[in-house]
Write the structure tokens for this entry.
Amino acid sequence: MLFAESEGPQSPLLPVWPEVFIGLFCFAVIFFVFYKKLLPSINKTLEERREAIEGGMEKAEATQAEARQTLESYREQLAEARHEAARLRQEAKEQGAALIAEMRAEGQRQREEIIAAGHTQIAADRKQAAEQLRQDVGKLAVDLAGRLVGESLEDHARQSRTIDRFLDELEDRAESGVTSGSEAGR
Amino acid sequence: MSNDQLLAFETDCHLFQECGFPAPSVWSFIFDPIFSVGPIEFNKIMLLALLGTLAILAFFWTAFAKPKIVPGKLQMVAEAGYDFVHRGIAREIIGKKGEPYVPLLVSLFFFVWVMNIWAVIPFAQFPVTSAIAFPAALAVTVWVVYMTVTFKTNGFVGGLRNLCVPSGLPKGIYVVLTPIEFISNVFLRPFTLAVRLFANMFAGHLLLLLFITAAWYMSGTVVGTVYAVPALVLALVLTVFELFIQALQAYVFTVLTATYLSQALEEAH
């Protein structure tokens, strides 16, 4: 432009000096605004954002770990509870079985006791009946003999025990006859 | 300036009207001053540069001045852009040592990109970077940083070795390679950095101008419209292509800067 008036246009490869200065000025302004103000400002924010994101991620990780731990402990507790329940069930079953066995044994024992008592009772009754019978038979025999002889021999007979001896003999004979007879009857 | 030096839009010339096609030329890159302060003429290019700067600052100020941990939409978009340069360029190419240069790279990327984008903004429609002054200013800045970092990291001798003597080659090669490396790194790098950006945007603007002026020039008659429609379609296609090139050149400029810095930060073996 400076030489345009003289002979045709200036070569486009020759810079126009005012333009160079304008260019330098504009670039310098942009550079310093970026350098002093804008880039530090945005870098600070980017750094803060990075930290915020990383902080958030750390927090999320921590929460996740906690959740995992809680789940683990719940599972543990559940397994424990199941184990406990199984144990209790087993114990109850065992106790029940023991109780039944005990009752059965008790029943058995009571039954045997009752049977034994019955046997004893029967033996005693029999013995008493035999005793009674002996006395009655003795008395009848003495009465009969007294009537036959015509005088009372009661006191004398008791002292001499003749009747007893006689009756024993009788009994022995009868018993052997009964046992042999009953054995033959079976 | 005579009329044939102005844009086709400012002429009423059409096909079959016995006036030649007003092809875009170097004149398309030169503007009348809006106002003058002494010898300094303030033109459209400078205005666009200032407006672009304001736009970048306004956008990033709104997005980053009071940033939220949970970003809004605007902040999210701005963060994506920042992240692209921070991770995609600085971290990728320089590594951890590149952290101090992130503001430079971010500024470079968005400055170049926005100045490129002016090419397709209605009514502006001029890439600021197609004026060599702007790529040159940026390339000089990059060169100064590149040299400073080189000598600060390696000292004077180490810096020279860093610039001239690539390691790990047979000794005989260095006789040839050392001067080539020196010229390449110290002189050609800033030059190519500036010219690459300038030439891309210059050519892109010329292409768009060519097809749009052609569509305008050929319209008006039935036969001419048959030619004008494909030209217009191509102008639209090229506009989309330019959008891609604008971002790509901003990326290339930033990546190359990062590559130079990465080399400068390399410790001598």
About this structure: Residues 46 and 131 of chain A are 125 Å apart (CA to CA). Chain A touches chain B at residues 1, 4, 9-24, 26-27, 29-31, 33-35, 37-39, 41-42, 44-46, 48-49, 52 (CB under 8 Å). Chain A has one domain: 17-152. Residues 17-149 of chain A form the longest helix (133 residues).
